[in-house]
Specification:
This protein has 264 residues and is mostly helical. Helices cover 61% and strands 0% of the residues. The structure holds zinc ion (ZN).
């Protein structure tokens, strides 16, 4: 009788699912990202005000404060003021659905390796920034600058364990793309990109550049392609004309995420 054969399955009892450390990390990532969605809702609510106005600190209808000391129900998916019941901040469930989609996509098909913390950090700041951009056509420095600083720093940490060429490409990609966007803002004025887009490009270029020049190029092709498609669609349906200024941040987010999911 062989003593070294595999143990026979015991009827009625299933083996526990084989969860590799990587799978566990991804699962905890999903929960960590979902847990910070009220903070992202707070950021979007606070900065979705036209340029020049102070950031929002409470309910527009009754003035009841909304913040970390008064989070519910205003910072939950219902997005209602706890005092008067008026809607506060981004539409109900929008932030949460975007965050959930990003978390699930990351868990299922996110890029491997040490750059994952940088990507999560970037999404944490960039998702609220995009919601602000869609609402009031601006990408606030208070969101894009920490997004870029943390992305560069976390990629620097990841580079300690990786080929230093990754970090060099990330720095050149981020700085180069930001310089290109900023120069169109200076040279073309309103017909060029905004300075907010340029600050967002600092982190977008770095993340895409980390994974290689082809990924950076692919991300830009997707970003500009999506933006062109949506613009043409809006023109064709007469919901926009040639002088309409579309926010560009959402296309940067979609193009970057899609490029990373498809190529890494
Ligand atoms: Zn209220």
């Amino acid at each position: 009788m062989a003593l070294t054969g595999p143990p026979e399955a015991i009827p009625g009892r299933e083996d526990p699912p084989d969860r590799s450390p990587a799978a566990r990390t991804r699962l905890s990532t999903v929960f960590a990202i979902l847990a910070i969605s009220p903070l992202m809702r707070l950021a979007a609510l606070r900065y979705a005000v036209p340029p020049g106005l102070p950031s929002r600190s409470g309910c527009d209808a009754c003035g009841a404060p909304v913040g970390l000391t008064h989070p519910w129900p205003a910072l939950g998916p219902a997005a209602r003021c706890g005092q008067c019941g008026a809607r506060v901040g981004p539409p109900p469930a929008t932030v949460e659905l975007v965050v959930l989609a990003a978390a699930v996509l990351l868990a299922l098909a996110g890029p491997p390796g040490g750059a994952l913390p940088a990507l999560i950090w970037w999404l944490g700041w960039t998702i609220p920034a995009i919601i602000v951009d869609l609402a009031v056509h601006r990408l606030p420095d208070r969101l894009t600058v920490p997004a870029a600083a943390g992305t560069w720093l976390l990629l620097g940490v990841a580079a300690l364990d990786a080929d230093p060429g990754h970090w060099l490409r990330a720095v050149i990609g981020g700085a180069g793309l930001a310089f290109f966007f900023a120069s169109t803002a200076v040279l073309l004025g309103r017909r060029g990109f905004g300075l907010g887009d340029a600050k967002m490009a600092l982190s977008v270029g770095a993340l895409l550049g980390w994974y290689g020049w082809p990924v950076l190029l692919f991300g830009l092709v997707l970003t500009f392609g999506l933006s062109a498609l949506v613009s043409l669609g809006l023109l064709a349906t007469r919901r926009a004309n040639w002088s309409t200024h579309l926010p560009f941040g959402p296309f940067l987010l979609l193009g970057t995420t899609a490029a990373l999911l498809l190529t890494t």
